[in-house]
Amino acid sequence: MTETAPRPWVVLNQTDIFVDERSGQQIGDTWIRAAGDGYVIELAEARANAELIVRAVNAHGDLVKALWAAEPWLEAEKHMPPCVCDACETYEMIVAALDKTKTSC
After folding, report:
1. Number of H helices and number of E strands within the chain?
2. Residue % of the chain over a pLDDT of 90
3. pLDDT-derived band of residue 27, with 50, 70 and 90 as boundaries?
4. CB-based burial of residue 43 (10 Å sphere; 0-12 exposed, 13-18 middle, 19+ buried)?
5. 75: part of which helix (H) or strand (E)?
6. Residue 48, Cβ neighbours under 10 Å: how many?
7. Which of the listed residues 35, 54, 77, 93 has the most CB atoms within 10 Å of its CB?
8. What is the distance between the alpha carbons of residues 10 and 17, in angstroms, rounded to a whole number?
9. What are the residue ranges spanned by the domains of the chain?
10. Residue 95 CB-half CA count within 13 A
């Protein structure tokens, strides 16, 4: 699996995403300049997008750890298929999400 950029990421200059404030390593930006289709997003939307991306990336490791911790407990609560109770559906969602963490994009 390919390594990701170090965390935490931060938003600088309103729409630019950096590894941190000191490194100068820019990950990207959320400013869309698609002149071909006439769609240019507002600065507030670009900033909100950048902040959402940074929050998701910074929370990713903790979320994966929490899912791995919850998976055995939910598996023990799981009923026989084709049960669709909340516990079984939650277990299936966790297994699907954890499977995605095992593969690279």
Report:
1. 2, 5
2. 14
3. confident
4. exposed
5. helix 43-77
6. 15
7. 54
8. 6
9. 10-101
10. 11
Task: Please choose, from the candidates 57, 77, 82, 55, the residue with its C-alpha nearest in 3D space to the C-alpha of residue 94.
Answer: 77
What does the alpha-carbon distance between residue 42 and residue 46 come to, in Å, rounded to a whole number? 6
Tokens of 99: 């499977």
Token pair, residue 48, equals 């909100």
The tokens for 104 are 């690279």
Write out pLDDT tens, residues 44-79: 888 898 999 999 999 988 988 888 888 887 777 777
Confidence grade of residue 105 (pLDDT, cut at 50, 70, 90): very low
